[in-house]
Amino acid sequence: RRLSARGVILVDCVTCEMFMRFDTVANTYAREAFEAVTFWTRGAFYAFVGLWLAAFFIRTMTSEVDWRQSSWQAVQFVAVGIVLSGVGFYWDWVYLPARATMSGLTQLMVANPSTGVSDTSMSGLLQAVESEIMTVFGVVVAMLKSSSWYELVNFVAAIALMVPYIFVWGIFLAFLLEGIFKLLGVTALAPIFIALIPFKSVRGFSMSA
């Protein structure tokens, strides 16, 4: 037994040990990439906001100003500025909750309904999937133990039952790793997408990204 990232006791999990190595690397690079891109994006964003403020004050002296629209635009600029002030806000309020939500929803589809979801981390997801696979393996082992060497029907049935689950298990791990590294790519570019949110012409693109 060991502790997961959320302090939940987990039984030995083969795939968890393998996954945690990739996950640690991905999280480290995601955080570093976000910080690096944020540095340049924040500077460009603040420069634009400065130009916007200068243009706004000039408009107040030369023509009428839509104060409601301008106030809402200023609120959006302030909100984006807060998010771009550092990696902590994005990490604690967007990145980690998104991962936990995806993991928890996936576990609801694969875990035993009677036990529910006790750990929404990725380790908890892998543990839930692996426990279901091991249940099938237990049935296969029981079939093999109860069969003699000449009882080919039971032997073939046990192998036939095990192979699809091994295949699905491998595909699941591959998709999970792919998702982690895709999330790494999105996180690296997240500061740019966040900086574009206040602009109506590209807001749809940035939100969908």
Number of strands: 2
Unreliable stretches, pLDDT < 50, 5 or more residues? 1-11
Which structural class best describes the helix and strand composition? mainly alpha
In spatial order, strands of the major sheet run 1-2
Major sheet size, sense and barrel closure: 2 strands, antiparallel
| Percent strand | under 5%
How is this structure best described in words?
The protein has 209 residues and is mainly α. The protein is 80% helix and 2% strand. It contains six helices and two strands; from the N terminus they run ββαααααα. It has helices at 14-62, 67-83, 87-110, 122-145, 152-196, 200-208, and strands at 2-3, 9-10. The protein has a two-stranded antiparallel ribbon with strand order 1-2. The longest helix is centred in the N-terminal third of the chain and has 49 residues, at 14-62. It is rod-shaped and about 95 Å long. The model is unreliable at 1-11 (pLDDT under 50).
